[in-house]
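Notes continue from the previous slide.

Worked example: a multi-chain complex. Inputs as given:
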Amino acid sequence: MLDNINILVQAPVFNLALIIDGLLIGAVYALMAYGLALVWGVMNVKNLAQGGFVMAGGYICWWAGQNGIHPLIGLVLAAAVMWGFGYVIFKIVVRQVLDRDLFTSLLATFGVAIVTEQILNILFTSDTRSINLGYDSWVLFGGAVNLPVQKVGAFVLAAILATALALFMKHSRMGQAIRATAQNPRAARVMGIDTERVYAFTYSLNAAICGASGALVAMIWLIQPFYGLAYAIRAFVIVTMAGLGNLPGVIVAGFGMGVIEQYGGFVLGAAYQQAIVVGLLVIVLVIRLMQAQMKREVVQ
Amino acid sequence: MNKLILYAAILAAGIAAPFVFPNYTTQVSVLWVMVLLALTWDMQGGQMGYNSLGNIFFFGLGMYVSAVVQVGLFQPVAEYMDSSSLEVFTFTPAEYWTGLVLGIPAGGIFCAIAAIPMGFIFFGLRGPYFAIGTLAVAVAAGELFSTWEWVGAGSGVTMPSFPHHPDLAKLSFYFMNFVLAVACFGTLAWLYSTRFGIAINAIRDDEQKAEGMGLHTTRYKCVNWSIAAFFLGMSGAVFGNLVGFIDPREVAFATITFGIFMVVMPLLGGKGTLWGPVVGAFIFHTFKEATWTYLLGWQWVALGGLIILIVVYFQDGIMGWLMRTKPEWFGIRVEGREREMQEARAMEAAE
């Protein structure tokens, strides 16, 4: 462990490699965390199925690639299929638990995650997969930083998707309706917004975002059916860190998450990466708790 | 009186089961583990209103503590756990039983102690944050134990093998699980009838008021978790020996199998009741075992579907449903409308 820190101190250029890797994957984290923030903010459902959706999207894109479809089209396909899947899940599961206590929706989406991941496991086995397009890598800083074009492309795609999403939320009628519902569902209903439709749309949109993020994960990193839970926890950490309805915060937290993970993985060993993610969650929760307690003391 | 007969019948059935159905000893043995898991989860989720998704953490922790004690008393732990070494370690029957007798309570006590500082950290979290925080602990533990070389890392721990005939192993572990489940049930039945039970119910119903009435809520919550952890740790220790091999993610910290079953079983049976978790565990486990062989790989999908079904459509559980439809079975006198009308009619007729 100390050796690894020593390497970082001796050769600062390695830091750059880690940060770049972290930012590349962090963009995807931010994208899927934004989906979670949407669902959480609009209908107060903490969607633990997030990770399952991400993996499903990744597998759809990978499978399309195996059948000779370019991953760019595969990404669109993944988003479209996951949109439909999200709609079905909303109708049969999430809709039924919207008015119940929060633990019910948490548990129900956990059930959805288990079903999704198990189906993926049966269809695609539990081997890790990734999409390789066979592009070159850019070699920077005399070989210290190796930057595959494919990863950069995925990063750019994530940025484009996030921008499109932000514009959609800001300017389209549906986006405005979603934000209105998030602020006050009853007032939104009074104003003639069909909140029922908004809920269905938001959940499907989130599933589609996850599908697209999954395709990007398959390009940048690896997919495996049971990595899903870790992705759900990552999204949860990012949203808890940033707060709801805070898009810049989500992006920064997503990048931060990616970079911290890369550093942790390098210093402690790659095997600890998942443990670092959940460790971060505990830390973030405890910090939030302490903040809340301080606030309470001030009030007293 | 009726109650006594019921208790006696269940005890007798439990004792007789392995002799009547010797082929199913292990399945019934796991059933008692399930009963214990459901009961201990219900201590927080049902009775205290803190829905934990990570109680499986104590189950796995107890398993590992017991394994380390059982091995460490007689052999060097690191060499024993090293999966690449070809050295064979054997335990004499005396060593095996000493290890087991000391290892199981050690697992329980270690978990009970570990639960207290954890409680101080986590019981500040409310609602879904508590659920996700505890889930994170269980997942993190699984990941950490699968990278920790000293306890065998990802390749797990092969437990010391049972020194006598395998049938005897099945029987002894069966009775250990049975005794643990019965002891757990008895302890909880007693606890719920004391001031402690009332206090944790008050925390569930309105924590701030409970605090306002002068209850040390944090203390109650930590003690509650600690008792649950004690039983979970011991049960995990027995289960590890029963399976014979501890895999950090699949057996010890099995978040998406046992970890979620222990939540679903009390929900199915009716959470917040004494018998609900037991009934739920019986039905869930029977369903699981009965359908297991016919589903050919799809069993996990079916089980996930069942979880969704229970959570979404049947959250009151069986006991909750019975209490609503047949309140008189539980000694609740309902001044029903029909009865009133009958009485009114009788009065009119008398006049």
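Summary box: Chain A touches chain B at residues 46, 48, 93, 96-97, 100-104, 106-108, 110-112, 114-115, 117-119, 121-122, 226, 229-230, 233, 236, 240, 269, 271-272, 274-275, 278-279, 281-282, 285-286, 288-289, 292-293 (CB under 8 Å). The longest helix of chain A spans residues 13-43.
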